[in-house]
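Researcher: Here's a chain I'd like modeled. Treat it as a single chain, no partners, no ligands.
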Amino acid sequence: MQSSPSPTAPASSPTPWRAGVMAAETWASALATIALRQQLWLTQPPTSLPLLDENQRMVTEKWEAGVELAAVWHETWVAACHGRLPCWWESSQRILHPLHRRTMANSRRLTARPARRP
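Model: Modeled as a single isolated chain. Structure tokens:
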């Protein structure tokens, strides 16, 4: 008897399931990133270089993610206006992809490095 593939495996799961998993991962990693940045703000003086660098990086990444998200949203909207509206799970994955990629990378980066003390 053959074992069934894991329900979270991307190749074996249906596309709507993957869209839900991507949304949940984005939400969870965003909360983790917020908590890690708050910890940095609480453990470092306001003028410390690591804190200032992280704040600058946070603002820059949010700006870049917003621009990238707007471009994907616009592509989806234009496609819909021309009658090429994809399924909701395909468009949601396309729209969530920039946010998912950035939040996962930020969460990994902030947990990998130890908190620097002043």
